[in-house]
Amino acid sequence: MTIDAATVRKVARLARIAQPEETVEQLARELSGIMDWIEQLGEVDTDGVEPMTSAVHVPMPMRDDVITEGGDPEVVLSNSPKRVGNFFVVPKVVE
Amino acid sequence: MSDLTSLTLKAALDGLAAKSFSSVEITQAHVEAVEAARALNAYVLETPEKALEMAKASDARRAAGTAGPLEGAPLGIKDLFCTEGVRSTAGSKIIGDFKPTYESTVTSNLWRDGAVMLGKLNMDEFAMGSSNETSAWGPVVNPWRTKGGNAQLTPGGSSGGSASAVAAELCLGATATDTGGSIRQPASFTGTVGIKPTYGRCSRWGIVAFASSLDQAGPMARTVEDTAILLSSMAGHDPKDSTSLPVETPDFASFVGKSVKGLRIGVPKEYRVDGMPAEIDALWEQGIAWLKDAGCEIVEVSLPHTKYALPAYYIVAPAEASSNLARYDGMRYGLRADGANLTDTYERSRAAGFGAEVKRRIMIGTYVLSAGYYDAYYLKALKVRRRIADDFDQAWEKVDALLTPTAPSAAFQLGDKSDDPVAMYLNDIFTVTVNLAGLPGMSVPAGLDASGLPLGLQLIGRALDEGTLFSLGGAIEKAANFRAKPQKWW
């Protein structure tokens, strides 16, 4: 198994997804199955190959650093799960 | 008014221009067809009032002499596209009841050209799936059934709602998106035409992101010409997407019907995979024969890294997805499940909001990007991706386009592959290479298998050479003379 239960717990924490303990073994098996299948990439000789980070062959366009939109809190907040006035209400970040 | 729903987009636009019927009439006919077809679960949101309002406005524009290229045509929109004031969920519970305050560029372009929206189409959650079974709204059912059978088949995925709606005549055409095959595989499973254009042809702005270096929007419709008409409206440079290509959009429909004489068509030997049904192989041979008859020269080519495309994709796409989907934290919009503290709230919200397949892919993506694994997996996959793109570049020295099957099977039964992620991933074996290389790919219906289900052939072209694909697709469509329609049972 490429991915054991401890790794599943660690990665779930990094991904911020609560993973009930009773599902960890099953998920470890599933993810290992996928990773074992992916391992075949090791067969490809990639020495000296430049990684391909984009499918577009044009340089990244630049624009002026100016505000193009904004100043409309109603639009920004219209889908918020909780709000007070013009603020999002979120759980306490600093104890 | 079923006669109005069975028109091609082109015929409908001609009929509207000739004032044989109004946009309100053809829209009403579609609204009724959509309501009568809820058993297919193709639409996750019907917007009949908006549709009729848009149709009325369209009729007024036509009367005023300001008709656009899609004036009055009712379309379906995949739920991955943000539509202003209209719930957009990407097939996920985590987005909840999200009503965008903006319109995606692609749909804005359609409305600019006069089109009418019938509603939002079902899809795999965040476009992650090949059978539409990962949708929070339940699977879409394929209008096609096997001869004499009544088992429910998948329309494919992730654009299953788009495919099913087009095949069942619940819209004249639909928007869709394709990250690994999500336009072409459903097109093949439903006897419809779908094209994923060159990466950068259509703006990604306002489309919920899955894997940003692979995602591309494209049309699905019932004829090659109809997809060409739609793509000319959907495409175009957009400064709001930094990967949108600053190029002119051709009149793609002008390429349909053009002679394909003298074109060199590559047949990649690596696409003859073990276990592929003989019927698909035979159909491929048939396609080769059709193009030969049309004057094409057939050339065997080699794309040696083909077998590594899917494993590379299942690193690159989840890695990008894990980053893109980090934004769903329950703070500013979407589902929030309150926990003991901030981290607990994040973890509960994401556990409650994401489905199993999306969680799997976020986990894979997080794993391959995590400390100690980045070089071994992510960087390796990017290098393999370069090898795959180089394979195509070498092929383009010898040929103008490639012909392959679209998918390794016909539509399968809902539930058949949902327990085995890797078996499901193999659906995209012939389509995913195209996304990795950023090339255009089209699926054209070419025939029925012995059980009466449609099968498609895929055409792959050089970057920005969709025109050649429309000419070749038109030639295959003409030769195949595919007229079969699903028997109405819904």
CATH topology of chain B: Amidase signature (AS) enzymes
Strands ordered across the widest β-sheet of chain B: 4-6-5-10-11-9-7-8
- Sheet-strand content of chain A, in percent, reads under 5%
The CATH class of chain B is identified as Alpha Beta
Low-confidence stretches of chain B: none
Report the structural category of chain B: alpha/beta
Q: What percent of the residues of chain A sit in helical stretches (DSSP H or I)?
A: 25-40%
Task: Give a verbal description of the structure.
- The complex is a heterodimer of chains A (95) and B (490).
- By secondary structure, chain A is mainly α.
- In chain A, 35% of the residues lie in helices and 4% in strands.
- Chain A has a domain at 5-40.
- Chain A has helices at residues 5-14, 21-38, 73-77, and strands at 83-84, 87-88.
- In chain A, strands 1-2 form a two-stranded antiparallel sheet.
- In chain A, α1 crosses α2 (21-38).
- Chain A is flat and about 55 Å long.
- The model of chain A has no long low-confidence stretch (mean pLDDT 93).
- With 490 residues, chain B is α/β, with parallel strands linked by helices.
- Chain B has helices at residues 2-5, 9-17, 23-36, 48-63, 105-112, 160-167, 184-190, 224-234, 278-293, 309-324, 342-353, 356-369, 374-395, 421-425, 432-437, 466-480, and strands spanning 43-46, 74-78, 116-121, 173-178, 193-196, 216-221, 264-268, 297-301, 401-405, 441-448, 454-461.
- In chain B, the strands form 2 sheets. Chain B has an 8-stranded mixed beta sheet, sandwiched between helices. In chain B, strands 1-3-2 form a 3-stranded mixed beta sheet, sandwiched between helices.
- In chain B, α3 runs antiparallel to α4, α6 packs parallel to α7 (184-190) and α10 crosses α13 (374-395).
- Chain B is globular.
- The two termini of chain B are 17 Å apart.
- At the A-B interface, α1 and α2 of A face α10, α11, α12 and α13 of B.
